[in-house]
Write a structure and sequence with these properties.
Two copies of one chain form a homodimer. By secondary structure, the first copy, chain A, is an alpha/beta fold. Chain A folds into two domains: 10-131, Response regulator (Rossmann fold); 134-230, Arc Repressor Mutant, subunit A, CATH 1.10.10.10. Helix content of chain A is 39%, strand content 21%. Chain A has eight helices and twelve strands. Chain A has helices at residues 18-30, 41-51, 67-76, 95-99, 115-131, 164-175, 183-191, 200-213; strands spanning 10-14, 34-38, 55-59, 85-89, 107-110, 138-141, 144-147, 152-155, 158-160, 181-182, 220-223, 227-230. A five-stranded parallel beta sheet of chain A has the order 2-1-3-4-5. The first copy, chain A, has a four-stranded antiparallel beta sheet with strand order 6-7-8-9, with helices on one face. Chain A has a three-stranded antiparallel beta sheet with strand order 10-12-11. In chain A, helix 2 (41-51) runs parallel beside helix 3 (67-76), helix 6 (164-175) packs across helix 7 (183-191) and helix 6 (164-175) packs across helix 8 (200-213). The termini of chain A are close together. The interface between A and B is medium-sized, with 25 and 19 residues. The structure holds a DNA duplex.
DNA sequence: CGATCGGGTGACAAGTCTGTGACGACCGGG
DNA sequence: CCCGGTCGTCACAGACTTGTCACCCGATCG
Protein backbone atom coordinates (compact mmCIF):
# COMPACT_ATOMS: atom_id res chain seq x y z
CA UNK A 1 0.00 0.00 0.00
CA UNK A 2 1.51 3.31 -1.04
CA UNK A 3 -0.51 5.99 0.76
CA UNK A 4 0.83 6.42 4.28
CA UNK A 5 -1.73 7.44 6.86
CA UNK A 6 -1.37 11.07 7.93
CA UNK A 7 -1.05 10.12 11.54
CA UNK A 8 0.59 6.89 12.60
CA UNK A 9 -1.78 4.76 14.63
CA UNK A 10 -0.58 4.51 18.20
CA UNK A 11 -0.28 1.04 19.66
CA UNK A 12 0.11 0.30 23.35
CA UNK A 13 2.20 -2.81 23.96
CA UNK A 14 2.01 -4.40 27.40
CA UNK A 15 4.23 -7.21 28.64
CA UNK A 16 6.29 -7.69 31.77
CA UNK A 17 9.20 -9.17 29.86
CA UNK A 18 11.23 -6.36 28.35
CA UNK A 19 12.50 -8.63 25.57
CA UNK A 20 8.99 -9.46 24.48
CA UNK A 21 8.00 -5.81 24.49
CA UNK A 22 11.06 -5.01 22.47
CA UNK A 23 10.31 -7.65 19.86
CA UNK A 24 6.73 -6.59 19.39
CA UNK A 25 7.51 -2.91 19.46
CA UNK A 26 10.26 -3.27 16.90
CA UNK A 27 8.02 -5.03 14.44
CA UNK A 28 5.12 -2.69 14.89
CA UNK A 29 7.36 0.30 14.39
CA UNK A 30 8.77 -1.28 11.27
CA UNK A 31 5.22 -1.59 10.03
CA UNK A 32 4.70 2.14 10.49
CA UNK A 33 3.01 2.30 13.85
CA UNK A 34 3.79 4.53 16.75
CA UNK A 35 4.41 2.40 19.81
CA UNK A 36 4.09 3.09 23.50
CA UNK A 37 4.73 0.45 26.13
CA UNK A 38 3.94 -0.63 29.65
CA UNK A 39 5.40 -3.35 31.86
CA UNK A 40 2.54 -4.02 34.23
CA UNK A 41 -1.22 -3.76 34.51
CA UNK A 42 -1.35 -0.55 36.51
CA UNK A 43 0.70 1.49 34.10
CA UNK A 44 -1.05 -0.14 31.17
CA UNK A 45 -4.37 1.16 32.43
CA UNK A 46 -2.90 4.57 33.07
CA UNK A 47 -1.37 4.91 29.63
CA UNK A 48 -4.45 3.54 27.93
CA UNK A 49 -6.54 6.22 29.56
CA UNK A 50 -4.18 9.11 29.19
CA UNK A 51 -2.73 8.56 25.76
CA UNK A 52 -5.75 7.04 24.04
CA UNK A 53 -3.95 4.54 21.81
CA UNK A 54 -5.67 3.18 18.72
CA UNK A 55 -5.10 -0.43 19.69
CA UNK A 56 -3.47 -2.51 22.38
CA UNK A 57 -1.34 -5.64 22.44
CA UNK A 58 -1.73 -7.12 25.88
CA UNK A 59 0.06 -10.02 27.54
CA UNK A 60 -2.22 -12.20 29.61
CA UNK A 61 0.28 -12.90 32.37
CA UNK A 62 1.23 -9.80 34.22
CA UNK A 63 2.33 -9.33 37.82
CA UNK A 64 -0.32 -7.97 40.16
CA UNK A 65 -3.06 -6.80 37.79
CA UNK A 66 -3.19 -9.38 35.00
CA UNK A 67 -4.29 -9.01 31.41
CA UNK A 68 -7.81 -10.17 32.02
CA UNK A 69 -8.31 -7.60 34.71
CA UNK A 70 -6.87 -4.85 32.52
CA UNK A 71 -9.22 -5.86 29.77
CA UNK A 72 -12.26 -5.85 32.00
CA UNK A 73 -11.43 -2.49 33.50
CA UNK A 74 -10.93 -0.90 30.13
CA UNK A 75 -14.26 -2.24 28.95
CA UNK A 76 -16.03 -0.63 31.84
CA UNK A 77 -15.12 2.91 30.87
CA UNK A 78 -16.81 4.40 27.83
CA UNK A 79 -13.67 6.16 26.70
CA UNK A 80 -11.74 2.91 26.42
CA UNK A 81 -14.57 0.47 25.93
CA UNK A 82 -14.12 0.21 22.20
CA UNK A 83 -10.33 0.01 22.22
CA UNK A 84 -9.26 -2.94 20.07
CA UNK A 85 -7.28 -5.40 22.19
CA UNK A 86 -5.14 -8.32 21.06
CA UNK A 87 -4.25 -10.73 23.83
CA UNK A 88 -0.99 -12.64 23.99
CA UNK A 89 -0.77 -15.90 25.85
CA UNK A 90 1.41 -18.92 26.27
CA UNK A 91 -1.33 -21.51 26.02
CA UNK A 92 -4.29 -21.56 23.70
CA UNK A 93 -6.56 -23.20 26.25
CA UNK A 94 -6.49 -20.10 28.39
CA UNK A 95 -7.99 -18.07 25.65
CA UNK A 96 -11.44 -19.53 25.44
CA UNK A 97 -12.71 -17.21 28.10
CA UNK A 98 -10.71 -14.25 26.97
CA UNK A 99 -12.35 -13.92 23.61
CA UNK A 100 -15.85 -14.49 24.83
CA UNK A 101 -18.05 -11.94 26.43
CA UNK A 102 -16.58 -12.51 29.83
CA UNK A 103 -13.50 -10.49 29.14
CA UNK A 104 -13.94 -8.94 25.75
CA UNK A 105 -10.64 -9.09 23.93
CA UNK A 106 -11.00 -8.76 20.18
CA UNK A 107 -8.41 -11.21 19.09
CA UNK A 108 -5.61 -13.28 20.49
CA UNK A 109 -2.29 -14.84 19.62
CA UNK A 110 -0.47 -17.67 21.31
CA UNK A 111 3.24 -17.48 21.92
CA UNK A 112 5.35 -18.05 20.06
CA UNK A 113 3.87 -16.17 17.15
CA UNK A 114 5.32 -14.77 13.98
CA UNK A 115 5.79 -11.01 14.21
CA UNK A 116 4.40 -10.72 10.75
CA UNK A 117 1.21 -12.32 11.90
CA UNK A 118 0.91 -9.95 14.82
CA UNK A 119 1.30 -6.99 12.53
CA UNK A 120 -1.37 -8.42 10.26
CA UNK A 121 -3.81 -8.82 13.11
CA UNK A 122 -3.21 -5.33 14.38
CA UNK A 123 -3.76 -3.92 10.93
CA UNK A 124 -6.96 -5.86 10.45
CA UNK A 125 -8.33 -4.78 13.76
CA UNK A 126 -7.62 -1.14 13.05
CA UNK A 127 -9.00 -1.38 9.60
CA UNK A 128 -12.20 -2.90 10.79
CA UNK A 129 -12.77 -0.33 13.48
CA UNK A 130 -11.67 2.72 11.62
CA UNK A 131 -13.24 2.02 8.32
CA UNK A 132 -16.74 1.33 9.42
CA UNK A 133 -17.33 0.78 5.77
CA UNK A 134 -20.95 -0.18 6.14
CA UNK A 135 -22.20 3.38 6.00
CA UNK A 136 -19.39 5.52 4.79
CA UNK A 137 -19.73 7.83 1.82
CA UNK A 138 -16.38 7.18 0.23
CA UNK A 139 -14.64 3.85 0.04
CA UNK A 140 -10.98 3.78 -0.77
CA UNK A 141 -8.92 0.75 -1.75
CA UNK A 142 -5.43 1.52 -2.94
CA UNK A 143 -5.90 3.95 -5.79
CA UNK A 144 -9.46 2.86 -6.36
CA UNK A 145 -11.92 5.31 -4.93
CA UNK A 146 -15.67 4.96 -4.75
CA UNK A 147 -17.59 8.11 -4.02
CA UNK A 148 -21.12 7.04 -3.35
CA UNK A 149 -23.04 10.34 -3.10
CA UNK A 150 -21.32 11.62 -6.24
CA UNK A 151 -21.86 8.31 -7.97
CA UNK A 152 -18.30 8.48 -9.09
CA UNK A 153 -15.45 5.99 -9.31
CA UNK A 154 -11.81 6.84 -9.92
CA UNK A 155 -8.69 4.77 -10.36
CA UNK A 156 -5.74 6.96 -9.57
CA UNK A 157 -6.73 10.21 -11.26
CA UNK A 158 -8.64 8.54 -14.05
CA UNK A 159 -12.40 8.60 -13.75
CA UNK A 160 -14.17 5.39 -14.62
CA UNK A 161 -17.58 5.54 -16.25
CA UNK A 162 -19.82 2.87 -14.83
CA UNK A 163 -23.42 2.12 -15.58
CA UNK A 164 -25.73 2.25 -12.61
CA UNK A 165 -25.88 -1.52 -12.30
CA UNK A 166 -22.13 -1.79 -12.35
CA UNK A 167 -21.84 0.98 -9.81
CA UNK A 168 -24.29 -0.61 -7.46
CA UNK A 169 -22.62 -3.97 -7.78
CA UNK A 170 -19.28 -2.42 -6.95
CA UNK A 171 -20.57 -0.60 -3.90
CA UNK A 172 -22.39 -3.64 -2.59
CA UNK A 173 -19.21 -5.66 -2.89
CA UNK A 174 -17.05 -2.96 -1.37
CA UNK A 175 -19.34 -2.27 1.54
CA UNK A 176 -19.03 -5.84 2.73
CA UNK A 177 -15.36 -5.71 2.11
CA UNK A 178 -13.55 -8.94 2.85
CA UNK A 179 -16.67 -11.02 3.09
CA UNK A 180 -17.60 -13.37 0.32
CA UNK A 181 -20.99 -12.73 -1.19
CA UNK A 182 -22.86 -15.34 -3.12
CA UNK A 183 -24.41 -14.59 -6.45
CA UNK A 184 -27.83 -14.94 -4.87
CA UNK A 185 -26.97 -12.38 -2.23
CA UNK A 186 -25.66 -10.00 -4.85
CA UNK A 187 -28.77 -10.43 -6.92
CA UNK A 188 -30.87 -9.55 -3.93
CA UNK A 189 -28.81 -6.53 -2.97
CA UNK A 190 -28.12 -5.13 -6.40
CA UNK A 191 -31.22 -6.13 -8.29
CA UNK A 192 -33.64 -5.77 -5.36
CA UNK A 193 -35.62 -8.95 -5.05
CA UNK A 194 -36.08 -9.64 -8.74
CA UNK A 195 -34.73 -13.10 -8.26
CA UNK A 196 -36.11 -14.14 -11.58
CA UNK A 197 -32.76 -13.20 -12.97
CA UNK A 198 -30.16 -15.79 -13.86
CA UNK A 199 -27.31 -15.90 -11.37
CA UNK A 200 -24.87 -16.02 -14.25
CA UNK A 201 -25.86 -12.47 -15.01
CA UNK A 202 -23.80 -11.48 -12.01
CA UNK A 203 -20.75 -12.95 -13.69
CA UNK A 204 -21.31 -10.91 -16.79
CA UNK A 205 -21.56 -7.72 -14.81
CA UNK A 206 -18.50 -8.56 -12.80
CA UNK A 207 -16.70 -9.09 -16.06
CA UNK A 208 -17.76 -5.70 -17.40
CA UNK A 209 -16.86 -4.09 -14.13
CA UNK A 210 -13.40 -5.63 -14.16
CA UNK A 211 -12.89 -4.56 -17.72
CA UNK A 212 -13.62 -0.96 -16.89
CA UNK A 213 -11.66 -0.97 -13.66
CA UNK A 214 -8.52 -2.09 -15.46
CA UNK A 215 -5.68 -2.64 -13.01
CA UNK A 216 -7.96 -1.97 -10.04
CA UNK A 217 -9.95 -5.05 -10.97
CA UNK A 218 -7.57 -6.96 -8.74
CA UNK A 219 -9.66 -5.82 -5.81
CA UNK A 220 -12.44 -8.14 -6.85
CA UNK A 221 -11.78 -11.78 -6.03
CA UNK A 222 -13.59 -14.74 -7.44
CA UNK A 223 -14.19 -17.38 -4.79
CA UNK A 224 -14.85 -20.46 -6.80
CA UNK A 225 -18.06 -22.26 -5.94
CA UNK A 226 -19.16 -19.47 -3.64
CA UNK A 227 -19.24 -16.00 -5.08
CA UNK A 228 -17.25 -12.78 -5.18
CA UNK A 229 -15.32 -10.78 -2.63
CA UNK A 230 -13.88 -7.32 -2.45
CA UNK A 231 -10.35 -7.70 -1.18
CA UNK A 232 -9.27 -6.42 2.19
CA UNK A 233 -5.84 -5.63 0.79
CA UNK A 234 -3.75 -6.54 -2.22
CA UNK B 1 -6.02 -20.65 35.97
CA UNK B 2 -6.55 -18.69 39.15
CA UNK B 3 -10.08 -17.32 39.08
CA UNK B 4 -12.61 -19.93 40.11
CA UNK B 5 -15.99 -19.78 38.44
CA UNK B 6 -18.64 -18.14 40.59
CA UNK B 7 -21.03 -21.04 40.34
CA UNK B 8 -19.97 -24.64 40.13
CA UNK B 9 -21.26 -26.32 37.00
CA UNK B 10 -23.79 -28.99 37.86
CA UNK B 11 -23.24 -32.44 36.37
CA UNK B 12 -25.82 -35.20 36.27
CA UNK B 13 -24.26 -38.66 36.52
CA UNK B 14 -26.36 -41.63 35.48
CA UNK B 15 -25.42 -45.28 35.97
CA UNK B 16 -27.21 -48.26 37.43
CA UNK B 17 -24.13 -49.48 39.28
CA UNK B 18 -23.74 -47.49 42.49
CA UNK B 19 -19.99 -48.08 42.51
CA UNK B 20 -19.58 -46.56 39.10
CA UNK B 21 -21.68 -43.56 40.06
CA UNK B 22 -19.60 -43.14 43.16
CA UNK B 23 -16.32 -43.25 41.29
CA UNK B 24 -17.40 -40.72 38.72
CA UNK B 25 -19.07 -38.43 41.22
CA UNK B 26 -16.05 -38.42 43.48
CA UNK B 27 -13.72 -37.38 40.72
CA UNK B 28 -16.00 -34.72 39.35
CA UNK B 29 -16.48 -33.24 42.79
CA UNK B 30 -12.73 -33.23 43.30
CA UNK B 31 -12.49 -31.25 40.06
CA UNK B 32 -14.83 -28.63 41.43
CA UNK B 33 -18.15 -29.67 39.98
CA UNK B 34 -21.45 -30.02 41.71
CA UNK B 35 -22.78 -33.53 41.11
CA UNK B 36 -26.27 -34.97 41.12
CA UNK B 37 -26.99 -38.59 40.31
CA UNK B 38 -29.57 -41.02 39.02
CA UNK B 39 -29.68 -44.81 38.88
CA UNK B 40 -32.08 -45.39 36.01
CA UNK B 41 -33.45 -43.78 32.90
CA UNK B 42 -36.70 -42.55 34.35
CA UNK B 43 -35.17 -40.61 37.19
CA UNK B 44 -32.40 -39.40 34.92
CA UNK B 45 -34.99 -37.76 32.68
CA UNK B 46 -36.79 -36.30 35.65
CA UNK B 47 -33.70 -34.79 37.21
CA UNK B 48 -32.43 -33.50 33.89
CA UNK B 49 -35.66 -31.61 33.39
CA UNK B 50 -36.13 -30.35 36.90
CA UNK B 51 -32.63 -29.44 37.90
CA UNK B 52 -31.26 -28.30 34.54
CA UNK B 53 -27.71 -29.57 34.91
CA UNK B 54 -24.92 -28.12 32.77
CA UNK B 55 -23.83 -31.48 31.46
CA UNK B 56 -24.61 -35.15 31.78
CA UNK B 57 -22.58 -38.33 32.07
CA UNK B 58 -24.78 -41.15 30.91
CA UNK B 59 -24.24 -44.89 30.96
CA UNK B 60 -25.47 -46.62 27.84
CA UNK B 61 -26.73 -49.75 29.59
CA UNK B 62 -29.56 -49.00 31.93
CA UNK B 63 -32.49 -51.15 33.05
CA UNK B 64 -35.82 -50.34 31.39
CA UNK B 65 -35.15 -47.01 29.69
CA UNK B 66 -31.62 -47.22 28.35
CA UNK B 67 -29.10 -44.49 27.65
CA UNK B 68 -29.97 -44.16 24.02
CA UNK B 69 -33.62 -43.62 24.82
CA UNK B 70 -32.77 -41.05 27.49
CA UNK B 71 -30.62 -39.22 25.02
CA UNK B 72 -33.28 -39.17 22.34
CA UNK B 73 -35.96 -37.97 24.70
CA UNK B 74 -33.82 -35.17 25.99
CA UNK B 75 -33.06 -34.05 22.47
CA UNK B 76 -36.72 -33.78 21.70
CA UNK B 77 -37.40 -31.10 24.27
CA UNK B 78 -36.08 -27.63 23.58
CA UNK B 79 -35.15 -27.07 27.19
CA UNK B 80 -32.81 -30.05 27.23
CA UNK B 81 -31.96 -30.34 23.57
CA UNK B 82 -28.62 -28.62 23.92
CA UNK B 83 -27.54 -30.38 27.10
CA UNK B 84 -24.03 -31.73 26.60
CA UNK B 85 -24.05 -35.51 27.05
CA UNK B 86 -21.14 -37.88 27.48
CA UNK B 87 -22.00 -41.51 26.92
CA UNK B 88 -20.32 -44.34 28.78
CA UNK B 89 -20.18 -47.73 27.20
CA UNK B 90 -18.44 -51.06 27.46
CA UNK B 91 -17.64 -51.47 23.79
CA UNK B 92 -16.45 -48.92 21.29
CA UNK B 93 -18.28 -50.49 18.40
CA UNK B 94 -21.59 -49.51 19.85
CA UNK B 95 -20.71 -45.90 19.60
CA UNK B 96 -21.03 -45.31 15.92
CA UNK B 97 -24.74 -44.88 16.25
CA UNK B 98 -24.56 -43.02 19.50
CA UNK B 99 -22.40 -40.29 18.10
CA UNK B 100 -24.36 -39.87 14.91
CA UNK B 101 -27.54 -37.94 14.51
CA UNK B 102 -29.57 -40.93 15.45
CA UNK B 103 -28.98 -40.40 19.10
CA UNK B 104 -27.05 -37.22 19.43
CA UNK B 105 -24.57 -37.67 22.25
CA UNK B 106 -21.76 -35.15 22.25
CA UNK B 107 -18.93 -37.39 23.30
CA UNK B 108 -18.30 -40.87 24.56
CA UNK B 109 -15.95 -42.90 26.71
CA UNK B 110 -15.43 -46.63 26.73
CA UNK B 111 -15.13 -48.46 30.02
CA UNK B 112 -12.78 -48.76 31.65
CA UNK B 113 -11.70 -45.14 31.47
CA UNK B 114 -9.40 -43.03 33.56
CA UNK B 115 -11.27 -40.61 35.81
CA UNK B 116 -8.89 -37.92 34.76
CA UNK B 117 -9.95 -38.33 31.18
CA UNK B 118 -13.59 -38.14 32.08
CA UNK B 119 -13.02 -34.90 33.93
CA UNK B 120 -11.17 -33.56 30.91
CA UNK B 121 -13.98 -34.42 28.59
CA UNK B 122 -16.56 -32.80 30.81
CA UNK B 123 -14.49 -29.67 31.04
CA UNK B 124 -14.03 -29.56 27.31
CA UNK B 125 -17.70 -29.96 26.69
CA UNK B 126 -18.54 -27.10 28.99
CA UNK B 127 -15.82 -24.96 27.51
CA UNK B 128 -17.12 -25.55 24.07
CA UNK B 129 -20.54 -24.44 24.98
CA UNK B 130 -19.27 -21.36 26.73
CA UNK B 131 -17.22 -20.57 23.68
CA UNK B 132 -20.27 -21.04 21.56
CA UNK B 133 -18.24 -22.46 18.76
CA UNK B 134 -21.36 -23.67 17.06
CA UNK B 135 -22.17 -20.34 15.54
CA UNK B 136 -19.11 -18.20 15.78
CA UNK B 137 -17.68 -16.44 12.77
CA UNK B 138 -14.04 -17.19 13.39
CA UNK B 139 -12.66 -20.41 14.77
CA UNK B 140 -9.12 -20.46 15.97
CA UNK B 141 -6.90 -23.39 16.87
CA UNK B 142 -3.31 -22.60 17.54
CA UNK B 143 -2.10 -20.78 14.47
CA UNK B 144 -4.89 -22.22 12.34
CA UNK B 145 -7.68 -19.76 11.81
CA UNK B 146 -10.95 -20.27 10.02
CA UNK B 147 -12.81 -17.13 9.05
CA UNK B 148 -16.19 -18.18 7.84
CA UNK B 149 -17.72 -14.98 6.41
CA UNK B 150 -14.48 -14.28 4.60
CA UNK B 151 -14.27 -17.84 3.45
CA UNK B 152 -10.66 -17.74 4.35
CA UNK B 153 -8.27 -20.06 6.17
CA UNK B 154 -4.86 -19.08 7.42
CA UNK B 155 -2.06 -21.02 9.07
CA UNK B 156 0.12 -18.55 10.88
CA UNK B 157 0.38 -15.75 8.39
CA UNK B 158 0.06 -17.96 5.35
CA UNK B 159 -3.29 -18.08 3.58
CA UNK B 160 -4.45 -21.53 2.55
CA UNK B 161 -6.51 -21.91 -0.60
CA UNK B 162 -9.29 -24.41 -0.10
CA UNK B 163 -11.99 -25.50 -2.46
CA UNK B 164 -15.53 -24.97 -1.23
CA UNK B 165 -15.96 -28.63 -0.28
CA UNK B 166 -12.73 -28.66 1.66
CA UNK B 167 -13.70 -25.45 3.38
CA UNK B 168 -17.07 -26.77 4.37
CA UNK B 169 -15.61 -30.01 5.61
CA UNK B 170 -13.12 -28.14 7.74
CA UNK B 171 -15.73 -25.86 9.27
CA UNK B 172 -18.05 -28.74 10.00
CA UNK B 173 -15.26 -30.57 11.77
CA UNK B 174 -14.11 -27.50 13.64
CA UNK B 175 -17.56 -26.47 14.72
CA UNK B 176 -18.04 -29.76 16.51
CA UNK B 177 -14.59 -29.49 17.90
CA UNK B 178 -13.54 -32.39 20.06
CA UNK B 179 -16.40 -34.59 19.00
CA UNK B 180 -15.83 -37.48 16.68
CA UNK B 181 -17.92 -37.31 13.55
CA UNK B 182 -18.69 -40.37 11.53
CA UNK B 183 -18.25 -40.37 7.79
CA UNK B 184 -22.00 -40.66 7.42
CA UNK B 185 -22.57 -37.62 9.55
CA UNK B 186 -19.96 -35.64 7.64
CA UNK B 187 -21.58 -36.65 4.39
CA UNK B 188 -24.88 -35.37 5.68
CA UNK B 189 -23.49 -32.09 6.92
CA UNK B 190 -21.08 -31.27 4.16
CA UNK B 191 -22.81 -32.82 1.18
CA UNK B 192 -26.39 -32.07 2.29
CA UNK B 193 -28.45 -35.22 2.08
CA UNK B 194 -26.86 -36.67 -1.03
CA UNK B 195 -26.04 -39.87 0.76
CA UNK B 196 -25.59 -41.59 -2.54
CA UNK B 197 -21.96 -40.73 -2.15
CA UNK B 198 -19.36 -43.27 -1.09
CA UNK B 199 -18.20 -42.74 2.47
CA UNK B 200 -14.62 -43.23 1.34
CA UNK B 201 -14.95 -39.94 -0.47
CA UNK B 202 -14.74 -38.28 2.90
CA UNK B 203 -11.31 -39.82 3.35
CA UNK B 204 -10.13 -38.39 0.10
CA UNK B 205 -11.26 -34.93 1.02
CA UNK B 206 -9.70 -35.19 4.45
CA UNK B 207 -6.48 -36.16 2.75
CA UNK B 208 -6.57 -33.17 0.43
CA UNK B 209 -7.45 -30.93 3.32
CA UNK B 210 -4.51 -32.20 5.36
CA UNK B 211 -2.21 -31.76 2.44
CA UNK B 212 -3.12 -28.12 2.08
CA UNK B 213 -3.11 -27.40 5.79
CA UNK B 214 0.46 -28.62 6.11
CA UNK B 215 1.61 -28.51 9.72
CA UNK B 216 -1.84 -27.48 10.91
CA UNK B 217 -3.17 -30.81 9.68
CA UNK B 218 -2.36 -32.12 13.13
CA UNK B 219 -5.63 -30.64 14.29
CA UNK B 220 -7.55 -33.29 12.40
CA UNK B 221 -7.52 -36.69 14.09
CA UNK B 222 -8.47 -39.97 12.54
CA UNK B 223 -10.49 -42.09 14.94
CA UNK B 224 -10.11 -45.56 13.62
CA UNK B 225 -13.36 -47.33 12.96
CA UNK B 226 -15.45 -44.28 13.70
CA UNK B 227 -14.58 -41.13 11.82
CA UNK B 228 -12.69 -37.88 12.18
CA UNK B 229 -12.31 -35.32 14.90
CA UNK B 230 -11.03 -31.80 15.15
CA UNK B 231 -8.70 -31.73 18.13
CA UNK B 232 -9.50 -29.74 21.20
CA UNK B 233 -5.81 -29.01 21.69
CA UNK B 234 -2.51 -30.33 20.46
C1' DC C 1 2.70 -65.39 12.77
C1' DG C 2 -0.62 -64.74 9.01
C1' DA C 3 -5.10 -62.92 7.84
C1' DT C 4 -8.11 -59.23 7.87
C1' DC C 5 -9.63 -54.61 8.12
C1' DG C 6 -9.46 -49.68 7.79
C1' DG C 7 -7.45 -45.77 6.20
C1' DG C 8 -3.77 -43.16 3.39
C1' DT C 9 -2.35 -42.29 -1.43
C1' DG C 10 -1.93 -41.35 -6.40
C1' DA C 11 -4.27 -41.37 -10.63
C1' DC C 12 -8.16 -40.29 -13.48
C1' DA C 13 -12.38 -39.41 -15.96
C1' DA C 14 -16.57 -36.95 -15.51
C1' DG C 15 -18.58 -33.11 -14.02
C1' DT C 16 -18.83 -28.32 -12.57
C1' DC C 17 -17.70 -23.52 -12.56
C1' DT C 18 -16.22 -19.21 -14.45
C1' DG C 19 -14.44 -15.99 -18.06
C1' DT C 20 -15.60 -14.53 -22.47
C1' DG C 21 -17.60 -13.02 -26.83
C1' DA C 22 -21.84 -12.52 -29.04
C1' DC C 23 -26.72 -11.51 -29.57
C1' DG C 24 -31.27 -9.69 -29.25
C1' DA C 25 -34.33 -6.83 -26.37
C1' DC C 26 -35.15 -2.65 -24.59
C1' DC C 27 -35.04 2.34 -23.70
C1' DG C 28 -34.59 7.28 -24.31
C1' DG C 29 -32.94 10.94 -27.22
C1' DG C 30 -32.22 12.85 -31.36
C1' DC D 1 -37.78 6.05 -36.77
C1' DC D 2 -33.00 5.23 -35.99
C1' DC D 3 -29.18 4.96 -32.90
C1' DG D 4 -26.00 4.40 -29.09
C1' DG D 5 -25.84 2.49 -24.84
C1' DT D 6 -27.28 -0.82 -21.40
C1' DC D 7 -28.94 -5.16 -19.99
C1' DG D 8 -30.00 -10.17 -19.47
C1' DT D 9 -29.10 -14.50 -21.66
C1' DC D 10 -26.60 -17.94 -23.98
C1' DA D 11 -23.09 -21.13 -25.79
C1' DC D 12 -18.48 -22.43 -25.45
C1' DA D 13 -13.82 -23.36 -23.93
C1' DG D 14 -10.62 -23.95 -20.45
C1' DA D 15 -9.49 -24.58 -15.82
C1' DC D 16 -10.47 -26.52 -11.77
C1' DT D 17 -13.12 -29.82 -8.65
C1' DT D 18 -14.65 -33.92 -7.30
C1' DG D 19 -16.13 -38.76 -6.67
C1' DT D 20 -14.24 -43.17 -7.41
C1' DC D 21 -11.01 -46.81 -7.73
C1' DA D 22 -7.01 -49.79 -7.14
C1' DC D 23 -3.21 -50.26 -4.42
C1' DC D 24 -0.46 -50.24 -0.34
C1' DC D 25 0.65 -50.20 4.38
C1' DG D 26 0.14 -50.38 9.22
C1' DA D 27 -2.98 -51.70 12.90
C1' DT D 28 -5.66 -55.25 14.83
C1' DC D 29 -6.99 -59.74 15.92
C1' DG D 30 -7.05 -64.61 16.05
Amino acid sequence: MSSEPRVKPKILVVDDEPDAVELVAFNLKAAGFEVITAGDGESALRRARQESPDAMVLDLMLPEVDGIEVCKQLRRHPRTAALPIIMLTARAEEMDRVIGLEVGADDYLTKPFSPRELVLRVKNLLKRRARNEEDTDVIQAGDLRIDIPRHQVTVGDREVQLTSTEFKLLTVLARRRGRVQSREQLLRDVWNYESLIDTRTVDTHVRRLREKLGPAARWIDTVRGVGYRFRESL
